[in-house]
Automatic annotation (TrEMBL), chains A, B:
<dbReference type="InterPro" id="IPR040449">
    <property type="entry name" value="Peptidase_S66_N"/>
</dbReference>
<dbReference type="InterPro" id="IPR003507">
    <property type="entry name" value="S66_fam"/>
</dbReference>
<keyword id="KW-0121">Carboxypeptidase</keyword>
<protein>
    <submittedName>
        <fullName>Muramoyltetrapeptide carboxypeptidase</fullName>
        <ecNumber>3.4.17.13</ecNumber>
    </submittedName>
</protein>
<dbReference type="InterPro" id="IPR027461">
    <property type="entry name" value="Carboxypeptidase_A_C_sf"/>
</dbReference>
<dbReference type="GO" id="GO:0106415">
    <property type="term" value="F:muramoyltetrapeptide carboxypeptidase activity"/>
</dbReference>
<dbReference type="InterPro" id="IPR040921">
    <property type="entry name" value="Peptidase_S66C"/>
</dbReference>
<dbReference type="Pfam" id="PF17676">
    <property type="entry name" value="Peptidase_S66C"/>
</dbReference>
<feature type="domain" description="LD-carboxypeptidase C-terminal">
    <location>
        <begin position="168"/>
        <end position="272"/>
    </location>
</feature>
<dbReference type="GO" id="GO:0008236">
    <property type="term" value="F:serine-type peptidase activity"/>
</dbReference>
<feature type="domain" description="LD-carboxypeptidase N-terminal">
    <location>
        <begin position="6"/>
        <end position="124"/>
    </location>
</feature>
<keyword id="KW-0645">Protease</keyword>
<dbReference type="GO" id="GO:0006508">
    <property type="term" value="P:proteolysis"/>
</dbReference>
<dbReference type="InterPro" id="IPR029062">
    <property type="entry name" value="Class_I_gatase-like"/>
</dbReference>
<dbReference type="Pfam" id="PF02016">
    <property type="entry name" value="Peptidase_S66"/>
</dbReference>
<dbReference type="InterPro" id="IPR027478">
    <property type="entry name" value="LdcA_N"/>
</dbReference>
<keyword id="KW-0378">Hydrolase</keyword>
Length: 279, 279
């Protein structure tokens, strides 16, 4: 069993002390090989964000550049890591290049930028904010097992041969038109979405399939959850939307992926960082 | 007083017969110089859309290519004109190049694509769907006056010297990363938004300022209306968001614009198609 010294910061929105306690209790009881340290910035509040941009960037750089940590785990998504990604990357040192960076949803901006700049290992994975509920803890355990070298929480379509990335759909659309975008040639691109109307999902697929450079291995559709009710039915399911745009834009549609804002959200190490999932 | 022979189609979502009657009554009573004809496709329904993609594209091409009309007016936004824009453009003939095309919101995909391909005159303007309410009719009259050569409904910052475009913010973000995007070098770019959280507006400005090519004259912010309540305050106003991203990305912020999903939505002919507004 590998141990990991885990630093936690909040590049987007804040968590509370009770979120932190819930995670610390879980680690103490079930993962005593790990240590977790919450950067005080996790609890800072500045309007929508976990502190001003400069504070969030500084906390991330503190965690990334500290040789006493192996893993930087993002506490929570929400919105805001896009505002600090480029600045934070520019301050990262040699120690930052040795680390695992884990999170998902809005933290995809950072996973993308780190992957683009070949800094450490980006991993789409459940986050500390979910540790307060029994269902949420199932996902959090998946991340903690991955940090310990246990690959049982991997997304089941990962074959150990095709590189992959996983993103929230809106986040990837935003990333794809920005300097944060990594080269995803030959990659399986997995996308998930939460709390968006199906017409908005359709619109995002229009955008994504326009912005992606040619040459990806294909798209897999994660969970599309908490779709708000509209005044009328959209007329296509989320999977039909993905199939429509992939067919129209000449991108292989590869089927579903077990990622999303659900308890089944699995671990997707970016690139080729994992063995094949044992499905 | 100029007359205009106006064809109405619905490239996105449908209207009802009562919307059509309200507009026809308004035209008969106040603008007898104009004629309006609703394409039957306006009332077609296919899930979210005013008929399947092929039907919507065909109706738009019918209206555009018919020498018996001077103006094509989009009945309503909603979502969907992005799915048909490129196909419709590819079928347009010489008559289509003589026309005015008017609408806004989701119909911005078409205004953009027409402007890119130098087909007729794109005009951001209120739409027929608003003719049922007294407040909505104020906007509709602005469009009908513009079709009659009366420039009193122009957006007041238009100076007759600086080319301009006007868009819904999400629509422009989607357009900007797609083959529909026109060259907006040296243009004032006006953007408005409705029913989006302020964090989403911030995210859209991140995207827009990344996607816009350098060299625009600047951004003007239209109305940001019907912002849903969030669990906490964002911490910046919509105008502060626009100012933040413009400053960060080196784009001049030029102040407010009178466009939006409001009764004050003014007319913005794309490019340099109008004289200075009489403010």
């Amino acid at each position: 069993m590998q141990m990991s010294r885990i630093a936690i910061c909040a590049p987007a929105t804040p968590i509370t002390r009770s979120h932190a306690e819930a995670l610390q209790n879980l680690v103490a009881e079930e993962f005593p090989e790990h240590s977790v340290e919450f950067h005080p910035q996790c609890f800072a509040v500045d309007g929508h964000f976990a502190g001003p941009d400069a504070l969030r960037a500084e906390a991330l750089v503190d965690c990334a550049n500290d040789p006493n940590f192996d893993t930087v785990w993002f506490a929570k998504g929400g919105y805001g890591s896009n505002r600090i990604a480029q600045a934070a990357i520019s301050f990262m040192n040699e120690h930052a290049r040795q680390k695992t960076y884990a999170g998902f949803s809005d933290c995809g901006y950072l996973l993308a930028a780190l992957y683009r700049h070949d800094i450490g290992q980006s991993v789409h994975a459940p986050m500390p904010v979910s540790a307060r509920s029994e269902r949420g803890r199932e996902g959090v355990r998946r991340s903690l097992r991955w940090f310990a070298g246990d690959t049982s929480g991997l997304e089941p379509s990962l074959d150990g041969k095709t590189p992959a990335v996983a993103f929230n759909l809106i986040t990837l659309c935003m990333v794809a038109g920005s300097p944060l975008m990594p080269d995803v040639t030959d990659h399986v691109v997995m996308v998930e979405e939460v709390s968006e109307h199906l017409y908005a999902v359709d619109r995002l697929f229009f955008q994504l399939t326009n912005l992606l450079e040619p040459g990806i291995a294909g798209i897999r559709l994660g969970a599309i959850t908490a779709v708000p009710e509209n005044d009328r039915e959209f007329g296509q399911s989320a999977e039909e939307i993905a199939q429509y745009w992939c067919a129209r834009m000449g991108i292989p549609y590869l089927g579903r992926a077990q990622i999303g804002h659900t308890v089944d959200n699995r671990v997707v190490p970016f690139g080729l960082a994992s063995p094949a999932a044992a499905t």
